[in-house]
Amino acid sequence: LIDLMEPEEAEEVRELLRYEEETAGRLMTRDVAALRRHWTVAETLEYLRSLEDAETLHYLYVVDRNDALIGVVPLRKLIISKADATIESIMARDIVAVPVTIDQEELADMVSRYDYYAIPIVDHQNRLLGVVTVDDVLDVIEEEVTEDIQRLGGSEPLDQPYFAVSVSQIIRKRIGWLLLLFVASTLSGEVIRLFQHELDVVVALGFFITLITGTGGNAGSQTVATIIRAITLDEVRLSNLGAAWRREVSVGLILGLVMGGVGIVRALLWHTGFDVALVVALTLPIVVVWSTTVATVIPVVADRLNIDPTVISGPMIATIVDASGLLIYFLLAKTILDVI
Question: Could you tell me the residue ranges of all domains in the chain?
Answer without folding.
Answer: 2-144, 166-339
